[in-house]
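Kindly go through the entry underneath: sequence plus fold tokens. Please state briefly how this chain folds according to its tokens.
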Amino acid sequence: MCEREFFTFREYMRKDRELLSPSAEDYMEMIYRLSADKGFTRVNDLASALNVQPPSVTKMIQKLADLKLIKYEKYGVIMLELSGMEIGKSLLERHNIIEKFLEFLNVTEGLLQETEKIEHTINEEILSGIKDVMAFFNDHPDSLEKFNKYRKTRNNK
């Protein structure tokens, strides 16, 4: 894609999309979360966690199984394949970084919703930059204090 060529948002997302749709990413992230303790999850648990109906879960997990990201047998448990585990871990890490960054910016209203929106559109370079900014302020609390004072005075204008 030419750097100065403009497209619709949908087209940018289509060009960036490699393997998974945003919905499939949500499923992989949640399967990873729910499987953390027992090593597996079930359709009803996943449906409940994502606020969707079990038939929707079944449809998506069949797609994920076709991609060899999970193991699933009808009416059985859902288990992550090694590649699925790596993807799930990465997606959860991305989610947590964005959520912490928004908290850092004192975003309180709609934190989860905004995190979910951002996580499906952000690229690795920007995510890496966010991690660097957060690490910098973590390592330099005096700079964080200056930044917060700056924001406070700027917002009071």
Q: What stands out?
A: The beta strands are 70-72, 78-80. The mean pLDDT is 89.
